[in-house]
Amino acid sequence: MQQRIASVDTADGTELAYATIGSGTRPVLYVSGWLSHLQLGWEQPAERAFYESLAEGCRLIRYDRAGCGLSEASDRPPSMEGELAQLTAIAEVLGTEQFDMIGVSLGAPVAVAWAALNPDRVRRLVLYGGWADGSRIAEPDVRDHILGLVESHWGLGSDVLTDIFAPDSDAATRKETGRYQRASSSATTARALLALSYELDVTAFLREVQAPTLVVHREHDRAAPVEQAEVLASGIHDSRLVVLPGRSHLPYAGDAQAVVAVIRRFLGLRAARRGGRILTPRQTEVAALVGAGLTNREIAARLGIEERSAEGHVERIRMRLGFHSRTQIAAWYATHAGDSGAEVRYFHA
């Protein structure tokens, strides 16, 4: 799949970037968590595979909130009012038709409030890793410590939060995720949005949500306690709660396919195809060497082939997996193959 990026202005003139993935007729609007970057996220193998799996048979629309990724910064500080205005601008791109909505992490309480205020627009609602009352997701001293860390040392702050968000990922993936967060926003914006996460309370909106709702949460989520998922599910009349095993807060970390499967089933979509792209044994071997940091010349020497042949193998791997760089191949191999050396199947929608 390829994503198509466009932009739209909010009511106050802030330009937001949004991306459309898939060619189905049913729209699914995805409200992301704390930070996002449409382009860099698409270049992360695990994140891209997650979006592609969700988008099979539908049209997935994602956007960068103001001050993040490809979107313009706003002169106004982050607030629920601002979040709803941005979501409204993206929804208007879809015209008057109903759509399904997925709210993830910070996007979950925002999606709750928007669905409650716009009951005629939301067909089905999915809330992953969310909460009803942000003040309940961490103790005050912990919140203050993390906010101070992000503000004073964005590099260390992003690494600490990555360890909380994706403890099931390997060290290389966590390091790349930290870099991704720093590239997605400034320290000032990151801190302000994190503070907003702790401030939002949508408890009063829960009873106003009319759309059938699925609440998905990992049992040992380290960023948002599962008790808040239970509050969401108990407060929304037509809802069901699914608790999955795992510790990671990011939906594409850990067992992402389990998250995809339960969401697609709820939305009435067919199970995503798995194993759509397979590397040959030789390509798997080359991918492992790319993951080990070898150049084409070193790969050729290791395998006893011409350097041009090694270059051709790398190019075919890149094209088969839909990647743009060796770094992506290395990250993909670390995530999907490890050190097994077995035939690798790429989970592609």
UniProtKB/TrEMBL annotation:
Keywords: Hydrolase. The keyword Hydrolase applies. It comes from the Bacteria. GO terms for biological process: regulation of DNA-templated transcription. Pfam families: Abhydrolase_1, GerE. One of its GO terms (molecular function) is hydrolase activity. Residues 272-337 form the HTH luxR-type domain. The keyword Hydrolase applies. PROSITE patterns: HTH_LUXR_2. This is Alpha/beta fold hydrolase. It comes from Microbacterium rhizomatis. The lineage of its organism: Bacteria, Bacillati, Actinomycetota, Actinomycetes, Micrococcales.
